[in-house]
Fold:
Amino acid sequence: MASGLEGEFQVLHEFVTSAKRKLAVEYWDYLVGGTETETSLRRNRLALDSIAFRPRVLNDVTRIDPSSTIFGRKIALPVMLAPIGSLESFDPGGGVTVARGAGAANVPMLISSVTTLRLEDIVAGGGGPKIYQLYVRGDDDWVSDRVSQAMDAGYDAFCITVDTQVYSRRERDIARRFVKSWRTAATGHDWQAGFAWKNFAAVRKRHPSVKFLLKGIATHEDATRAVEEGVFAVYVSNHGGRQLDHGRGSIEVLPEVVKAVAGRAHVAIDGGFCRGSDVVKAIALGADWVGLGRLFCYALAARGAAGIERMAELLGEEMREVMGLLGVSTLAELGPQHLHPAIPTNLPHVHSAFPLLAEGY
Structure:
């Protein structure tokens, strides 16, 4: 199904310029910013831009298929809409609008527990696969109850974020004296700080049939432990550069996590992914799915559900182009043999994937 926005948005960076025009400055800064020096944020892009392609030629690529699967369902692209805690800041419909856009695009979405909407309403908003993402704000009984609520509401899996033990200093917000309503309303952050492997094991034991993801894994040691604890997927993430500053770029972490997981669980990743070429790099390094955060929020702020659908259309076009020029027709053909270390040509920045923005396009 076409989004109907083909004439309005023909390149991905046009969503960025549209979103910036529409958003209040404090919400724009919240969306694009990171922690303190924003080093982790820039390293996400630096790591992606430090990978070059090794194309192969004289392969039949008349039919290129960038589709994937999740939960036994075919999806259009191997991407997920990552959890964002303030969707209502970008579109009044919040998670319902995102569900509608994700459903139209046939890609999965993760909905953050920092939402004002009923879980059932979000599920009913669109037909795509859905994962509920939790920030821990209570004891094991409280977490277990949230798992039950999400599963009863129709979610396909349950994700626990594990890299927010301490809430970071996001200096763009602090310098603007921007007090986020979804933060002031939250209580019980000490429960997140105290949530440990034993707590996850206790919750998982109560829900043995639930597919659990742990989001915020950044080392092979924690990936190994996550697999031992029976996760459905290890989710590599540095929270978009918004938690620990001076961390590694997400895709730099990916190879050691894939090696540690060794096929015993799925692997997801997010962190600076903005182009079809970025997604192809992650799949070639062993990821199953790539999370998009800022990119889909630009599209959401620009044109709501139709914007998300159009974003996915453009991302698919970029992926098919890259795959064809690499000489592959399916994601399964991609591997490390298609990649090579390289020196980046752009200074890393939250928008360095879109260099034409700096030229006023």
Summary: DSSP finds 14 helices and twelve strands in the chain. The domain at 13-359 is CATH 3.20.20.70 (TIM Barrel). The two ends are 28 Å apart (CA to CA).
